[in-house]
Amino acid sequence: MFRAAVPSGASTGIYEALELRDGDKARDVGKGVLKAIKNVNDIIAPAFIGKDVTDQAGIDKLMVEELDGTQNQWGWCKAKLGANAILSVSMAACRAGSAAQNIPVYKHIADISRKRTDQFTMPVPAFFPLSTVDPTQVTALLVKSS
Question: Which residues form a coiled coil (predicted)?
């Protein structure tokens, strides 16, 4: 079994893929993902039976274009299954594909993207360490602690 965790941010711009949330305010302040989990179990998982886990492009195309199929004026928006469901399965499939070939994930991704695998450099990490719904809270915290 391969697992993946996907990010969830406060940003919901018009160009972003759509994250599927339950909306039930009584559970996880409306940010639960039971609908996305149900889509993985009931729609995505059955479609993967017998598929080649090393075919990342085929896996992603199956989920985005065939199983979900939703588009807006900017492209595939993933509104039916949810970007959170699709991305988590894509990442888990990538890990499974690397394991099937007995190579590390970074080499598998390099192979998929047709990059040279003889020279690697460590990327500089980039992340936002304080994630809140309201960015002004972060500013207030940083100013207060200075």
Answer: none
Cα–Cα distances in angstroms (integers) from residue 122 to residues 11, 19, 63, 106, 132, in the given order:
28, 30, 31, 11, 28
Per-residue pLDDT tens over the stretch 83-122:
999 999 999 999 999 999 999 998 999 899 887 767 777 6
Check: CB of residue 79 under 8 Å from CB of residue 17.
no
Kindly state the tokens that stand for 6.
């996907």
13 inside domain: no
Q: How large is the C-alpha radius of gyration of the chain?
A: 18
pTM given for the model: 0.76
Say how many CA atoms lie within 13 Å of 145 toward its Cβ: 6
H and E: helices and strands count for the chain: 6, 2
